[in-house]
Write a structure and sequence with these properties.
Blueprint: H1 2-20, E1 38-45, H2 49-63, E2 70-76, H3 82-94, E3 99-102, H4 111-119, E4 123-127, H5 133-138, E5 145-147, H6 150-162, E6 170-175, H7 181-197, E7 200-206, H8 211-224, E8 228-233, H9 236-248, E9 256-258, H10 267-272, E10 277-280, H11 283-299, E11 310-312, E12 316-319
Parallel strand pairs: 1-2, 1-3, 3-4, 4-5, 5-11, 6-7, 6-8, 8-9
Antiparallel strand pairs: 10-12
Length: 320
């Protein structure tokens, strides 16, 4: 498995190096930036290690391509503070950035301000959490999604967990922010795996992507369902919270925990078995993939409506 992951990462790296060598032709719209596009990366909570890793990856990429583009990075304090993220996007519109690469806190609520950005001539690329397709269609708006298949990634994690359970076992799912597409897709992937293996999902609650909320929800699930054998968490932050809840309930080693993201903080827990598995969607590269799509669109003088709908990036199972 590790060799397969290594090959994918190397392939992605080669593609990125090739892209960085491409000459980004200056357009009249970029004259104000002396030929260099100004790219805004807008993320969710920077209190989440996943997005800090994403930001650092983007900054490192820009430093190695300083002659190609300028980079502005922003994030919100709270995963659910949609209003703050909308204000950031509005600020980027006023700042007249050339491209907006965004991981939306809400799949629907961000669409109107993203429409405003696109109407202002800004190339918009969606990463991490896919915008709602029906809402985009209602706005006659095309925004490419650059990211992994979250359902497939969660299915891989769920399938691996199922091998450590018995048919008919009860499990609980701790979902991310329920209004986000990636949370919904990961939950669907977990359910796919549990249904296929004959497990019984007895609880589904939102932990809002956060450690403390994940801990509280996990405690509630364990108290209400004493026969639960596993907790499937939509991200590693919530998995960390779930691990603490399992220990506090005196069920360490009796209730399996799985996550999603492969952040640094989860690796010791994978090693000692407190967490059984997670999924790596290569946080350090996700924003880079999105930035590259935006830069190529600018270099090719493409309109928002002419961009590809989906650019799928890797996601892989990670275990001990």
């Amino acid at each position: 498995m590790k060799s397969a992951i290594r090959r994918r990462v190397l392939s992605a790296a080669v593609a990125l190096v090739a892209c960085s060598a491409l000459p980004f032709a200056a357009s009249p719209a970029l004259a104000q930036n002396a030929g260099k596009p100004k790219v805004a990366l807008v993320m969710k909570s920077l209190a989440n290690e996943f997005f800090l890793t994403m930001e650092n990856g983007a900054k490192d990429y820009q430093q190695h391509n300083a002659d190609k583009f300028e980079l502005i990075t922003n994030g919100i304090k709270d995963e659910t503070d949609t209003a703050a993220q909308i204000r950031i996007v509005e600020q980027m519109i006023v700042s007249k950035v050339d491209a907006l690469v965004i991981a939306p806190a809400d799949s629907k609520a961000l669409v109107p301000v993203i429409k405003k950005a696109a109407d202002a001539g800004i190339i918009v690329v969606n990463i991490d959490n896919r915008l709602d397709q029906d809402v985009l269609k209602s706005k006659d708006l095309n925004v490419p999604f650059v990211g992994p298949d979250n359902r497939k990634g969660a299915r891989q994690v769920g399938d691996y967990l199922a091998k450590h359970l018995k048919k008919g076992d009860e499990v609980g799912i701790i979902e991310g922010v329920s209004t986000t597409t990636n949370a919904q897709q990961r939950t669907a992937g977990f359910k796919d795996a549990m249904d296929a293996a004959g497990m019984k999902v007895v609880a589904l609650q939102s932990g809002d992507w956060e450690i403390d909320k994940g801990n509280a929800v996990a405690s509630q699930i364990l108290n209400a369902n004493p026969n639960v054998k596993a907790l499937l968490c939509g991200n590693d932050n919530m998995a960390i919270g779930a691990v603490s809840a399992v220990r506090a309930a005196g069920k360490a080693g009796k209730v399996q925990v799985v996550g999603y993201d492969n952040i640094g903080a989860i690796k010791p827990m994978l090693k000692d078995g407190r967490v059984l598995a997670t999924a790596d969607q290569y946080a350090a590269k996700q924003a880079v993939f999105g930035i590259d799509v935006a830069l190529k669109a600018i270099a090719g003088h493409k309109k928002q409506s002419e961009l590809s709908t989906v650019v799928e990036t890797p996601v892989d199972l990670v275990t001990k």
